[in-house]
């Protein structure tokens, strides 16, 4: 099945302009919205799931395209096949986070990092390096990858990740700090309340973190 060709034949210029505007014109779009995209790719992804290994050639081919829908296709494919990921695939996913970067792709790829690190906690040593790197999206993942860990959250790691990014004036970092704390407050309000009191957070982070306190 020529999924690339199928996507191209479903291009909608009017929708593409609106979708691009929503994403601050960072990307070109074909104009295929998520419900239609899901319908178009369903059979293709179903067949790909029968394969024994991750088809990284396909993933990278998607990322070589400029249109955002192809990046979404690659990510949907990876999410559906995450059980096939190997530990060293974290480096390839790191590369994807750094390509065509924005919050939508980063936050979805974050789910794959979360899966790998929960399966093998030793991989957190790689994430520890991301806390201080120049790439804001990797730093965002270092803060957010435990988002759904609940009681399994490594609070010491979360604390270090946030503290390493406290002086950032980057919206997406401060938003991530607040989001991570807000989510963990559903599990441990006292820990989050104490953390907020003991550290100088941005107003945005405090506002986000305090939602359920």
| Major sheet attributes | none
How far is the N terminus from the C terminus? Answer: 51 Å
Question: What structural class do the secondary elements suggest?
Answer: mainly alpha
- Principal-axes shape call: globular
- The gyration radius over C-alpha positions equals 18 Å
Number of discrete helical segments: 13
Report the average pLDDT across residues: 97
User: In percent, how helical is the residue content?
Assistant: 55-70%
Note the beta-strand portion.
under 5%
Q: What ranges have pLDDT less than 50 throughout 5 or more consecutive residues?
A: none
Order of helices and strands: HHHHHHHHHHHHH
Strand count: 0
Regarding quaternary structure, what we see is: single chain
Can you describe this structure?
This protein has 213 residues and is mainly α. 64% of the residues lie in helices and 0% in strands. The protein has helices at 3-9, 13-22, 34-48, 56-64, 68-80, 90-97, 103-119, 124-130, 136-144, 155-163, 171-185, 189-198, 203-209. α9 (136-144) packs parallel to α11 (171-185). It is globular. The mean pLDDT is 97.
Précis, in short:
This protein is mainly alpha-helical and 213 residues long. The chain has helices at residues 3-9, 13-22, 34-48, 56-64, 68-80, 90-97, 103-119, 124-130, 136-144, 155-163, 171-185, 189-198, 203-209. The longest helix has 17 residues, at 103-119.
């Amino acid at each position: 099945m020529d999924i690339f060709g199928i996507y191209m034949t479903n291009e909608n210029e009017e929708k593409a302009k609106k979708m691009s505007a929503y994403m601050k014109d960072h990307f070109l779009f074909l104009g295929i919205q998520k419900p239609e995209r899901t319908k178009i790719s369903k059979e293709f992804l179903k067949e790909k799931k029968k394969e024994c290994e991750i088809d990284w050639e396909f993933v990278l081919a998607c990322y070589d395209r400029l249109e955002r829908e192809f990046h979404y296709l690659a990510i949907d494919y990876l999410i559906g096949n995450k059980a096939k990921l190997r530990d060293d695939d974290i480096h390839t996913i790191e590369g994807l986070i750094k390509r065509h970067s924005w919050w939508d792709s980063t936050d979805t790829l974050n789910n794959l990092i979360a899966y790998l690190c929960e399966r093998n906690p030793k991989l957190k040593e790689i994430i520890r390096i991301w806390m201080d790197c120049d790439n804001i999206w990797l730093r965002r993942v270092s803060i957010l990858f435990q988002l759904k860990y609940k009681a399994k959250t490594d609070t010491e790691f979360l604390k270090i990740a946030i503290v390493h990014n406290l002086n950032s004036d980057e919206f997406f970092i401060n938003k991530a700090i607040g989001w991570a704390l807000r989510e963990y407050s559903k599990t441990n309000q006292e820990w989050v309340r104490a953390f907020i009191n003991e550290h100088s957070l941005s107003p945005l982070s405090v506002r986000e973190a305090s939602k359920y306190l």
